[in-house]
Design goal:
It is built from three helices and four strands. It has helices at 8-14, 28-34, 41-47, and strands at 3-5, 22-27, 54-59, 67-71.
Length: 73
């Protein structure tokens, strides 16, 4: 999986932008628990094996709203 989606509430909770660029590193289990109605199978299949490990993410203003790209650590 190359991108993780964050809804507006998640962006507010994590202090990241829904529209603009930014960077954040979060444990995969925290990402999974943060989505109120849960993530789809594709997101779960990527994040669950990582467990408490960090996922490094970045977003440019040109990326679609809420979509953060997984980057190498």
């Amino acid at each position: 999986m190359k991108q993780i989606y964050f809804d507006r509430q998640q962006c507010d909770d994590f202090g990241i932008s829904y529209f603009e660029g930014g960077k954040i590193s979060l444990p995969a289990d925290v990402i999974l628990r943060s989505k109120g109605n849960g993530y789809d199978r594709k997101h779960r299949d990527f994040l669950e094996p990582i467990g408490r490990g960090l996922v490094h993410l970045s977003k440019t203003p040109d990326d679609a709203p809420g979509w953060y790209t997984v980057t190498p650590s």
